[in-house]
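[Q] Does anyone have a clean structure-token version of this?
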Amino acid sequence: MMDIYLFFFIVLSIIFIIPNLLKRFKIPAITSLIIAGIIIGPYGLNILQIDETLKAFAEFGAIMLMFLAGLEVDNETLKREFKNSLILSFFSILIPGIGGYFIGKLIGLDFIGSLLLSVIFSSHSVAIVYSLLEELNLIKSKLGTLILSSTVIVDLITLLILSIVIKLKTNGDIGSFVILTFLYIIALLISIPLVSKHILKIFEKLHAQRIHFVLFILFISIISGEVLGLHPIVGAFISGLAVSEALTKKEHDELLNKNLNAIGYGLFIPIFFLELGMEVNIRIITLKYIKLILIIIISSIILKFISGYLSLYLLRYGKKERIIGSLLTIPKISASLVAASIELSMRIINENLFIAIIALSIFTSTIIPTLTKNLYLKFKVRK
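[A] Here you go.
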């Protein structure tokens, strides 16, 4: 076994150096880490192996990614456009979900595999959409509020569907599971804000203790969710939403930007993406698998765009707003990659489809946001 210090030296060197080098070529950090993982992993140069230590760090990285995605949500924004966002959320799940299921059957997946592909097709990305809306100064706009609210709802629903489908795989009692899950979510969303406001006030000037408390809440949510049979990423996302409700704007900025982001994005989340790349066996990619990748990417984008365009048309948005809004529903990175890694570990999907899903996530989280930004500047969309 490689010396533990050398192991972490290599990992931290990659996390620090590679994204900064590839940033010059406008390659996002997430993409560069996945590429680095492919190169150094067992299917590349075989510099590092995927062992239990790396898996543990990567799993906590996935948890932190979903927790921070939930924490980034402004709940006032969510409430303001809740009614209209339900319409957008409904179409964003229904059309890509049905399409994804039939694409799954077309490429030879069984019932469970096709359901999970439909979940991935339906998913959004809170982190990417939030960042892009902020960059375009659309966060407080009517369209931006609608898109962000819908993204939160869709991500939450797809994570819950993911848990139900995993429960189906393990032959669990679905009826009891759904009822208990609903009660679990309600309990977290009510209790965490109430307790957090009180505790955070007590530790108002003690930043370390505030961070410890938030992480304590995170792990209580995860452990209680696991008792019900929920995957940790569900508890992480919901606890992030609940903690966000308890924070003032100042507290949110201090906790999120100065502390928790440093913990998550400083170490654990990059290791998650690095390990994800190490799972990719590029040696199996042939012309046949390139066809599979193209089918997944093209069908997912078309289905998402149609669902977004149709719902925004029903909500009486203009043509330019419909195009920009529809493009904003396409990016998928966190939920889809976490779901893909779970499915691969449970042998629900094979390596070929795993690689196709990674390609889908990379493409929709890099090319689509760039296209959206350029079209927005060209269209001069109303705010």
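[Q] Thanks! Anything notable?
[A] Residues 89 and 154 are 6 Å apart (CA to CA).
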